[in-house]
Sequence to fold (407 residues):
Amino acid sequence: MAPYESDDSTDATADGPPSARRKAARYAVPVAVVGVAAATIGLVPALADSGDPDLPKISAQQLIEKIAQSDVQRLSGTVKISTDLGLPDLGGLENSLVSGAGKGGGGSSADPTSKLTELASGTHTLRVAADGQDRQKVSLIESAAEYSLIHNGKDVWGYDSKSDEVYHGTAPQDGAKGEHQLPATPKDFAEEALKSADDTTSVTVDGTAQVAGRDAYKLVIKPKHASGTTVGAISIAVDSKTGLPLKFTLTPASGGAAVVDAGFTRISFAAPAASTFDFTPPKGAKVTDEKDAGVPAGGQGRVPGAPHRDGAAHQGLGEKDTKVLGKGWNSIAVLDSGTKGGIPSSTGKGGGLDGFLGSLGDQVSGKFGKGTVFSTRLVNALITDDGKVYVGAVTKEALVKAADTGR
Fold:
């Protein structure tokens, strides 16, 4: 089936549903490249599809509404996620840095914070299950080990079979998504993408596909004007019957493979067995409670510096501390890290970790002074010597221009 024509497109203006009218999500930014990479996890994914089912024609506006009205409460299945941010090989250092920062003085390898960074590169298989708002389970299948995150009523449990450690947290009681939640399904990613749609965005229906044996429509979201942004296009495969996103693909403006691919390889809408969500810490396992780790209930689960769900930055930086330059896909978040001197280069006076991190970035200069740009295939960050941080899904040149002009 050929792609649908332009009369099926929408610019996601004020006539669209609330999810298509919200402002783009704001970033909070760390001062290390590993944190910048981890912050992209909430943005993107996909998986190879097959088939070309013959489905009734639908407009982009109708498909967006179908997603918004989707109310799938029960499912189980397998999701495959592949991430290619183009990060340098740090030999496992990034996991040590971020998980260590997330643990504080009394952390656990079973804390969801320490597991989030593992999804920042490579290919991973997840088993997922849900039975309403109060019961979900995500299992990350690793080599000869498994990590499970279980939400059952008021309790959230994380269990790392490799270290035999358990993390216990408390789920929010207001029906909101918990901070412990890992992005695990295409729906999680699609919600973030649709929040970013505004009048700088083109949204079209681009034919059909078959994902995990289900007939689906393909919704394509992309910038109207590609200049300055690193985002090429986002494709969401939407189940034709339920409206549930089955696959999410983001390709960079530079071309090549998708930055991240995430999609169901198997899915069932039957209710999972109640025992799926039962968990009792194994005998002898080390158990860490979030209150013992000095973290307020419901406040753990973010990589340090990663986006906060309400748009405020982590580690005490609120909305008022973050300035946003530009609009839509060219938005650049600016904040003051409070660290003067920037990141030392590999040839400068800085040594150890700072010198190593500095060697990973590109040294730049302009009217703003000097700084270091850390790059991935999607998100770039400029850290200036006076402690300012500029970050966005934009090119290095766009960051330097923003630092020079303040716009």
Remarks:
- Confidence is low (pLDDT under 50) at residues 1-49, 90-106, 295-319.
- The chain has eight helices and 18 strands.
- Residues 11 and 202 are 5 Å apart (CA to CA).
